[in-house]
Specification:
Blueprint (H helix, E strand, L loop, with lengths): L2 H24 L5 H24 L9 H22 L5 H7 L3 H11 L5 H19 L11 H24 L5 H22 L10 H28 L2 H5 L4 H13 L6 H20 L4
Helix pairs in contact: 1-4, 1-9, 1-11, 2-3, 2-8, 2-9, 3-7, 3-8, 4-11, 4-12, 5-7, 6-12
């Protein structure tokens, strides 16, 4: 991996880390569903323009629309509806850590298929222990935690991303990743419409400059620019070397949240986060040793 790729990946993690802070900013004026809807209403056409310029228009088979719809629901609509709702109840730092449980759910799927080794099993147990520590705040009375509901939603988010990952891997046998993502974005935007209408569709032009900036950050930088960089890196290096960069996201998020939102991680989040990330690392890195 050359220095340019290292720099772009670090920048991408910096941008993704900031997303949890900008979501908090956007939620001050928009409800979670409107924020998610407008994010992808902006991002979807931009992704299609990029796809068209790079590959030209690619149609998908009608009999694959069901699977692509599931990708759209798990990787866009439900994923971000739950994530944005979760950030009304939990901290940006907790969210950045708990979304990484997706790797644990993918590993569990691998167990069910007979793909297991000692390193991966240890990683899953460590991640589980770290998550329990974050959610419980060191007490057996889980429900007393102020962030409990949001934390649980972020764990569900991890499961949804795992579904997207596992199903997406199968669909990649038929389509390239740019095409799959473009259609998932487009259908996901359509599926977000009922959510956005639930409390009434907000006027995005009637909000503050800060909220508009948050929307542009989430759609242009997090959903378009970061995606392009991610796959540029994957095309220039092995997936393990690229994937390890995601462990920078919780660290960057904690720093952002401290200065922008005055969030100070408690000892349970700090220790539980470290244990969770270690477990996820062991789980993911075990794949290259099987």
């Amino acid at each position: 991996m050359n220095s340019k790729t290292h720099f772009l990946l670090a920048l991408t993690m910096f941008i993704w880390a900031g997303s949890f802070v900008f979501i908090k900013v956007g939620l001050r004026e928009l409800d979670p569903y409107n924020l998610a809807f407008y994010r992808f209403l902006i991002a979807s056409p931009l992704i299609f323009v990029w796809l068209f310029l790079k590959r030209g228009f690619t149609a998908v088979r009608l009999n694959d629309l069901l699977y692509i719809s599931i990708l759209a629901l798990s990787g866009v609509s439900l994923l971000y509806a739950f994530q944005f709702l979760a950030l009304e109840y939990t901290t940006a730092t907790n969210a950045a850590i708990l979304i990484n449980t997706s790797a644990v759910f993918v590993a569990i799927w691998g167990f069910l298929r007979g793909e297991a080794n000692a390193r991966k099993i240890l990683g899953v147990f460590l991640s589980f222990a770290g998550v329990i520590l974050i959610v419980s705040k060191g007490t057996l009375d889980f429900f007393s935690s102020k962030t409990f509901f949001g934390d649980v939603l972020m764990i569900i988010d991890g499961f949804l991303w795992a579904v997207y990952t596992v199903l997406g891997a199968k669909m990649l046998l038929k389509y390239d990743h740019e095409t799959l993502t473009a259609y998932a974005f487009a259908l996901g935007t359509v599926f977000l419409i009922p959510f956005a209408l639930w409390n009434g569709l907000a006027n995005p032009l009637a909000v503050s400059v800060e909220t508009i900036a948050a929307l542009l950050y989430l759609s242009v930088l997090c959903s378009v620019f970061a995606y392009i960089v991610w796959y540029y890196a994957l095309s220039n290096s092995d997936s393990t070397s690229v994937a390890v960069y995601v462990y920078l996201v919780p660290l960057f998020t904690a720093i952002f949240a401290y200065y922008a939102l005055s969030e100070v991680p408690d000892i349970f989040t700090a220790v539980g986060g470290a244990i969770t990330i270690l477990g996820v690392y062991l789980t993911v890195s075990a794949n290259s040793q099987m």
